[in-house]
Specification:
The structure is a homodimer of 385-residue chains.
Chain A lengths: L4 E8 L10 H16 L8 E5 L12 H7 L7 E5 L4 H14 L5 E8 L6 H9 L14 H16 L3 H15 L13 H6 L2 E3 L2 E2 L9 E9 H7 L4 E10 L14 H14 L8 E3 L5 H10 L8 H6 L16 H5 L3 H16 L13 E8 L4 E8 L1
Parallel strand pairs in A: 2-3, 2-4, 9-10
Antiparallel strand pairs in A: 1-7, 1-8, 4-7, 5-6, 8-11, 10-11
């Protein structure tokens, strides 16, 4: 059985309004470069894990085999993994365990979602039904409103400001403008962000991530195969996951995501590191408040100091821990099933020193943090070169 | 890392028209007896894997955390696995790999689906959208029609008869009448079966499995924990999986499911057995022709002799290989996500000598065979006492 599991190939489709392609075609756009990157033939893939969040977006029940068949893997094992907005990272976790358990030597993990053919209200409604459809959803709860509650609680308890929330958005758009795969590649000013339309107080339009189409793919391999296929394998050395109550109304504390804290502890322990060892991270910024809570809950700063952390530019390149220098969900986009796999692609690039203008120099340890719903699911992965 | 993965707890809800409960309540009915059976506390569960096929049946996007939270597992990792009608077996495979890989020592696998609040045409339509929604589905293909094509091909090539198809149904109803968890617990005659309403030529009503609500749960554990929790662990010793073309129209041969043959080869090789070592099996009889093809494709008889196999009662208790003595999908019911987990429950009972009137005496090696769609997915598990 293999000691380590490595990432030997990465691929990324252009995120955005991709009405030019269907679900399977979009997946193909990510898989092909991943195979080229790993310099392997599709026949070398032993199994695939496909992450798609909702069958309703593409009107395709059971989309895994659709993608698996279209990209040409043939008669190998395939199943779909789903964990709401953390689907992609759950798929990476499942793929890792297939390799580590010996069921497969080389696994293709694909995350894909097509959402933009729905209007924003319709897409928001589908996502809202990931919340508890028997209790919270019928009373009008949507994900902007769940995170707005958290933002209000955080502002009240720690004095976090609207300006600090907006600063997260400014940073992520600045880096997203440098990422050719990002949905919206344009910088924004603090003033524009502060003045953007109110969505759900205190969250403005620019506090909310995008509804996007997109796909990303990674190829995982056993240690032996990884060393054969790649001169620069990146190792997945820590996997932490956790969950929390289905209903937000049952949470003790709205200023943190307990699942993030628990998943991070587990990932750090498995990797044998602490938060201060992390050189570069991607975190789940579905709303700006989510990134501020992630700074704290992942241990990059003390609880309550997330607002100060962004204000001091500690999450910029050159700061204490560069975060979401791929643009994050905010600017790169958030095609639900693709997001977690895209995170793995970005950290792999960073640890290979292939991120170009957005490169965090000398990064050796990376982290990805992917949240499902409003903290109901959380997956933290730690990577090492 | 653990050498073996064992089944230490099993639980089964009553399958049927369960409009008295919601999705999470039905899951709970399976999880509670599984915990009691394993004599463990829910706190001993390290992670869960939840199998639900369609978010549309229960109008709940991302149902995994709903179930995980409701049964009280707390902040442990959870994700959903889906592979159409083979969702339950895919979830067992994913759970096995979590244990074997060392990510968890004890994993709860739950399969659950609530379908009967929809009418049969509406449920059939949702299932039809598991087929290729861009090509075959728009032309009216549903799963009864896919399997009808296979039945016609099999009859044409091998002389399989309508009577032989009906005999599968008679057998499965006979055994289902002895299973207190089965949806329809009544015997039927060959004449009734032959005269039942035509659904899709040559398949009559009694050739088709049921649309049901149901749940099943199994607890998987590492070798050390399995020996601690159970005096009679059943070991999951062979896992084979395979897939096939998304479109039926691309298949070379409609008289077999290639994914079954490939998955079986892989499972037998991993377990170090041949088909003749199998003492008891559950196979995917979504339609009677599917059970006949499974006899052949799993190697219990030669290709083309499946009709003769049932006619000679070789798949009854006392025959060569007793098959679906729990009633199968035909009589026990087919709540999509639950079916594969229910199969694991039945084989575990058989290998523990706890199947009562339906017991295959002295069974030491068992097999479960679960197909997704019309052979797009297949999972074969081999079990040993």
């Amino acid at each position: 059985m293999t000691e380590k599991v490595g990432i030997v190939g990465i691929g990324h489709a252009k995120f955005g309004k991709r009405t030019d392609v269907t679900l399977r075609e979009l997946a193909h756009e990510a898989v092909t470069p991943a195979l080229v990157d790993a310099e392997i033939n599709v026949k070398d893939i032993d199994a695939s894990v496909i992450g798609v969040t909702s069958e309703e977006f593409a009107a395709q029940v059971s989309p895994a085999i659709l993608v698996h068949d279209y990209v040409g893997i043939g008669n190998k094992p395939v199943f779909r993994v789903e964990a709401a907005c953390a689907t992609g990272s759950a798929a990476v976790r499942a793929g890792w365990s297939l390799v580590k358990s010996g069921l497969a030597d080389v696994v293709l993990v694909v995350g894909v979602e097509t959402m933009t053919h729905l209007g924003t209200p319709e897409a928001t409604e589908v996502i809202a039904r990931a919340g508890d459809t028997r209790w919270e959803y019928p009373f009008g709860a949507t994900f902007p409103s769940y995170y707005a509650l958290m933002a209000i609680a955080h502002m009240h308890k720690y004095g976090t400001t609207r300006e600090q929330l907006s600063m997260v958005s400014v940073k992520n758009h600045m880096y997203g403008a440098m990422n050719p795969y990002a949905h919206i590649q344009k910088t924004i000013t603090l003033e524009e962000t502060m003045k953007s339309a109110m969505i759900c107080h205190p969250l403005n339009l620019y506090d909310c991530c995008l509804i996007s189409d997109g796909a990303a793919a990674v190829i995982l391999a056993s240690e032996e195969k990884a060393k054969r296929f790649s001169d620069t394998p990146v190792w997945l050395v820590g996997l932490g996951a956790a969950s929390d109550t289905m209903m937000i109304s049952e949470r003790e504390n709205l200023t943190e995501l307990k699942a993030t804290k628990t998943a991070a502890e587990r990932a750090y322990r498995m990797a044998g590191i602490t938060s201060s060892d992390v050189d570069v991270a991607v975190v789940h910024d579905c709303f700006t408040i989510a990134e501020i809570m992630a700074y704290e809950d992942l241990g990059f700063c003390k609880k309550g100091e997330g607002g100060k952390f962004i204000e001091e530019k500690q999450s910029y390149i050159g700061g204490k821990t560069p975060i979401n220098v791929d643009g994050g969900l905010k600017s790169k986009g958030h095609p639900l099933g693709a997001t977690g796999v895209s995170m793995t692609v970005e950290i792999t690039k960073q640890l290979r020193d292939e991120a170009g203008k957005r490169q965090v120099k000398g990064a050796e340890i990376g982290l990805s943090h992917n949240v499902g719903e409003a903290g109901q699911y959380c997956f933290v992965h730690v990577y090492s070169r």
